[in-house]
From TrEMBL:
Homology family: Belongs to the 3-beta-HSD family.
Annotated catalysed reactions: (24S)-7alpha-dihydroxycholesterol + NAD(+) = (24S)-7alpha,24-dihydroxycholest-4-en-3-one + NADH + H(+); (25R)-cholest-5-en-3beta,7alpha,26-triol + NAD(+) = (25R)-7alpha,26-dihydroxycholest-4-en-3-one + NADH + H(+); 7alpha-hydroxycholesterol + NAD(+) = 7alpha-hydroxycholest-4-en-3-one + NADH + H(+); 7alpha,25-dihydroxycholesterol + NAD(+) = 7alpha,25-dihydroxy-4-cholesten-3-one + NADH + H(+)
UniProt-listed Enzyme Commission number(s): 1.1.1.181
Organism: Bison bison bison
Keyword NAD: yes
PANTHER family: BIFUNCTIONAL POLYMYXIN RESISTANCE PROTEIN ARNA (PTHR43245), SHORT CHAIN DEHYDROGENASE_REDUCTASE FAMILY 42E, MEMBER 2 (PTHR43245:SF51)
Keywords per UniProt: Endoplasmic reticulum, Lipid metabolism, Membrane, NAD, Oxidoreductase, Steroidogenesis, Transmembrane, Transmembrane helix
Pfam families (alphabetical): 3Beta_HSD
Membrane topology: Multi-pass membrane protein
Highest taxon, organism lineage: Eukaryota
InterPro entries, sorted: 3Beta_OHSteriod_DH/Estase (IPR002225), Lipid_A_modif_metabolic_enz (IPR050177), NAD(P)-bd_dom_sf (IPR036291)
Function: The 3-beta-HSD enzymatic system plays a crucial role in the biosynthesis of all classes of hormonal steroids. HSD VII is active against four 7-alpha-hydroxylated sterols. Does not metabolize several different C(19/21) steroids as substrates. Involved in bile acid synthesis. Plays a key role in cell positioning and movement in lymphoid tissues by mediating degradation of 7-alpha,25-dihydroxycholesterol (7-alpha,25-OHC): 7-alpha,25-OHC acts as a ligand for the G protein-coupled receptor GPR183/EBI2, a chemotactic receptor for a number of lymphoid cells.
GO biological process, one term: steroid biosynthetic process
Protein name: 3 beta-hydroxysteroid dehydrogenase type 7
Length: 346
């Protein structure tokens, strides 16, 4: 990519750009990538908010498309310098079939890789997930681990299986020759549980609390630590990786990085109460709370909810100078303000 940070000549493609994370990546790129000439947003479902982005100096191209359709992906990728691939089916609740999850998350990722190779795009960043590592089917805790911590990654659920396969495809594609003869440079980012403005599960918990008279009921031991990371910091890490990947290809190519910031280590419920408490909800004990969470809970999500999985690493800082853009206090304030705007809020 160009050396001059002021020359607007780069074309980026963000797949899944209308999703929870994708929207933050899109907005972060427009705010913090001065070399952007065109930003392509590829998604099955385009959001109406995209229209407001078309008034700025960067050409914003909304592309309604399906990553399972190779020709649609190739058309969207052609001419892009960088692809940030966030599109995926984040389904751990059994809403879609295992086949569909595989088709979107694995075949869709393969389609993105092949499109890069065939059209000459050299830089591919993949949004992977903590679940590529765990928690595993044995319920073994991963306590403040890092990218090198030994852990038996054993999966059976379609979603983590699909993320693990897709990540493997991306990392194996690093170094492949693309059209034009230069090598493809890839890397994968592994967020833990992302929170922040637009987080649907947080919205669902808030609405449930309102329905239950301002109360939520604890179902997970407070001792179980869940890794959580603010969506703005995850978006920032994506932007930073995309910027540094060319100059640090030898170091970063084919690597995985956990997404992390200074969000505190807490149980899933206690962490959510950092935002829902200031919005008027209380967390209480109940004899049999699980019946209240039926839609969210199945054997898999219950196992994940009850297994410690936290990360403590500085690999992203060491490899490409990542520092969280938003402090914990800022992340918390922004999320609280968003919850307060959620329909039905007090
Ligand atoms: N939310 C989290 O806590 C979390 C944690 C770790 C990793 N991730 C990963 O981050 C990525 C984004 O997750 P999210 O939470 O923003 O989910 P999301 O569902 O909000 O966004 C996913 C986007 O992908 C799009 N999409 C789905 N199928 C598509 C297809 N066939 N073709 C084109 N677009 C398609 C959806 O329309 C949506 O806009 C996913 O790859 C997910 O695995 C999420
Ligand atoms: C008992 C309920 C009432 O308090 C709480 C149930 C919480 C679960 C629904 C969530 C607990 C852990 C979550 C997962 C984790 O944050 C990481 C994920 C990885 C990401 O790639 C996709 C989302 C998820 C699987 C996330 C889903 C929801 C939980 C299982």
């Amino acid at each position: 990519m160009a050396d001059s940070a002021e020359t607007q000549e780069l074309v980026y493609l963000v797949t899944g750009g209308c999703g929870f994370l994708g929207e933050h990546v899109v907005r972060m790129l427009l705010q913090r990538e001065p070399r952007l000439r065109e930003l392509r947003i590829f998604d099955l479902h385009l959001g109406p908010w995209l229209e407001e982005l078309k008034t700025g100096p960067v050409q914003v191209t909304a592309i309604q498309g399906d990553v399972t359709q190779a020709h649609e992906v190739a058309a969207a990728v052609a001419g892009a310098h960088v692809v940030i691939h966030t599109a995926g089916l984040v389904d751990v609740f059994g809403k879609t079939s295992p086949e569909t999850i595989h088709e979107v998350n694995v075949q869709g990722t393969q389609n993105v890789i092949e499109a890069c190779v065939q059209t000459g795009t050299r830089f591919l960043i993949y949004t992977s997930s903590m679940e590529v590592v765990g928690p595993n089917t044995k319920g073994q805790p991963f306590y403040r681990g890092n990218e090198n911590t030994p852990y038996e990654a054993v999966h059976r659920h379609p979603y983590p299986c699909s993320k693990a396969l897709a990540e493997q495809l991306v990392l194996e594609a690093n170094g492949r020759e693309v059209l034009g003869g230069l090598p493809l440079v890839t890397c994968a980012l592994r967020p833990t549980g992302i929170y922040g403005e637009g987080h649907q599960i947080m919205r669902d918990f808030y609405h449930q609390g309102l329905r239950l008279g301002g109360r939520l009921f604890r179902a997970i031991p407070a001792s179980v630590e869940h890794g959580r990371v603010y969506v703005g910091n995850v978006a920032w890490m994506h932007v930073l990786v995309a910027r540094e990947l060319e100059h640090r290809a030898a170091l970063m190519g084919g690597q995985v990085y956990f997404c992390y910031d200074n969000s505190p280590y807490k149980s899933y419920e206690d962490f959510n109460m950092e935002f829902l408490g200031p919005c008027g909800l209380l967390l209480q004990w109940l004899l049999r709370p699980l019946m209240l969470y039926a839609p969210l809970l199945n054997p898999y999500t219950l196992a994940v909810a009850n297994t410690t999985f936290t990360v403590s690493t500085d690999k992203a800082r060491r490899h490409f100078g990542y520092e969280p853009l938003f402090s914990w206090e800022e992340s918390r304030t922004r999320t609280i303000r968003w919850v307060q705007t959620v329909e039905g809020s007090a």
